[in-house]
Amino acid sequence: MPIHVNDVIQLLCRLSEVRGMKAAIKHSGRGALMAGFGAFTGGLLGGAVGLAVGGALGALIAASMASGQFKPVPQIILELPPIEQQRLYEDVRAIVRNLEWMDVAQLTALVMGNSSLQEKLLMVVTNYITKEFGATIKYGK
């Protein structure tokens, strides 16, 4: 069955939530990129007002990313720009492509019932966040 980007994002958020994953982001340069992306997106959506709102949203994301405070990994995944979510999708698709499921709930159940799949997917998330953000990952609530 074809898997959609949103399904993968939901799956990764659920898995990282269950494991209590949090990350401390260290790269403020990456946060600046997020601020610029927010401003660009806002500008596309509505001129000066959209630019201001998008820039403000991007700045908030950037500030939280640059703070070094631990932030829930599901939140980080959800805040990623679509192109970055697509990168995660490609890595996950390679792992789950041979599974059969009808919807994201069934896919999630399959993954949650298989510790080997969980570990592979957690490694994808961990590698992505540590490589792209220079983050430290912490597990547990």
- Mean pLDDT across the residues is 81
Q: Cα-atom Rg, whole angstroms?
A: 16 Å
Helix content: over 70%
Q: State the shape.
A: globular
Biggest pleated sheet: 3 strands, antiparallel
Q: Which stretches are low in confidence, meaning pLDDT under 50 for 5 or more residues running?
A: none
Q: Could you give the count of β-strands? A: 3
Summary tags:
mainly alpha; single chain; 141 residues
List the topology elements:
Layout: H1 5-18, E1 22-24, H2 28-66, E2 70-72, H3 73-79, H4 82-96, H5 104-112, H6 115-133, E3 136-138
Antiparallel strand pairs: 1-2, 1-3
Provide a brief overview of the structure.
By secondary structure, the protein is mainly alpha-helical. It has 6 helices and 3 strands.
Explain the overall architecture.
The chain is mainly α and 141 residues long. It has two domains: 1-24 and 71-141, no CATH class; 27-67. The chain has helices spanning 5-18, 28-66, 73-79, 82-96, 104-112, 115-133; strands at residues 22-24, 70-72, 136-138. The chain is globular. The N and C termini lie far apart (34 Å).
